[in-house]
Amino acid sequence: MVLLILLRHGESLWNRDGRFTGWTDVDLSENGIAEARHAARLLRDGGYTFDVAYTSVLKRAIRTLWIVMDDMDRMYVPVHRSWRLNEKSYGALQGLNKQETAEEYGAEQVHLWRRGYDVRPPPLLWDDPRHPRFDPRYAGQDPDALPATESLHDTLDRTLPYWHEQIAERLQDGKTVLISAHGNSLRALVKYLDAVPDEVIADLNIPTGYPLIYELDEGLHAVRHYYLGNPDEIARATAAVAEQATVPRG
Ligand SMILES: O=C(O)[C@H](O)COP(=O)(O)O
């Protein structure tokens, strides 16, 4: 049995403000820092450790990982960063308030942009300064391969090669792997691990800051998974993610 620990970063400044973030490099809020520390405590108290860590190239996931490594006294663990673990690109929606966007375009449309498996939000234009081709951290990448927007399907398609080429091998070596990443890059991995059907994945939300443990067999098939933490708090935090872009009644 091998262990995989998935961790969505703590609350970011734009999570706090209810804004679409995607590939925007936004830091943790004070609350997000506390959530990361809480995640470390949950792991420590549960007797979990990890041998190698993977994260995105976005600071909310990296900083969450740093805090967990520091609080668990595992700063020495090897860390690998890849854009393939980045959040789903929210394209031209990045920076907009989710609730205001729902008021303007309708909650149904925004739900499709957020959760439709094959639905892409409006893209960033090629010359938009927010396009990742202008960002030095992607300088080594083919600019045509960098997303101007993504569906969850697109996110899965660019995450999976990294899983197969890098992460799976470590797990097969019997290492416990921690992945500190994002709501949608983790939803994509969960879809793959649990073979969640396209229409069902829309209802799956991942809260910030709660470790999600996967037990895998030797073939890396998921045997079971569970969150660490208080189930009522996790249920509330998960529901809050789902409801981020609803239009208030009345
Ligand atoms: O990029 C974002 O806005 C969030 O990290 C994930 O948002 P979502 O829950 O609206 O997909």
Automatic annotation (TrEMBL):
What GO terms are given for molecular function? phosphoglycerate mutase activity
- UniProt xrefs under InterPro entries: His_Pase_superF_clade-1 (IPR013078), His_PPase_superfam (IPR029033), PG/BPGM_mutase_AS (IPR001345), Phosphogly_mut1 (IPR005952)
Report the record's Gene Ontology biological process terms. Answer: gluconeogenesis; glycolytic process
Q: SMART domains annotated for this entry?
A: PGAM
Q: What is its EC number?
A: 5.4.2.11
The pathway entry for this protein reads as: Carbohydrate degradation; glycolysis; pyruvate from D-glyceraldehyde 3-phosphate: step 3/5
Q: Which UniProt keywords apply?
A: Gluconeogenesis, Glycolysis, Isomerase
Record site: Transition state stabilizer: H182
- Report the SUPFAM superfamilies cross-referenced here: Phosphoglycerate mutase-like (SSF53254)
Q: What family does the entry list?
A: Belongs to the phosphoglycerate mutase family. BPG-dependent PGAM subfamily.
- Spell out the protein name for this chain: 2,3-bisphosphoglycerate-dependent phosphoglycerate mutase
Give the species: Methanoculleus taiwanensis
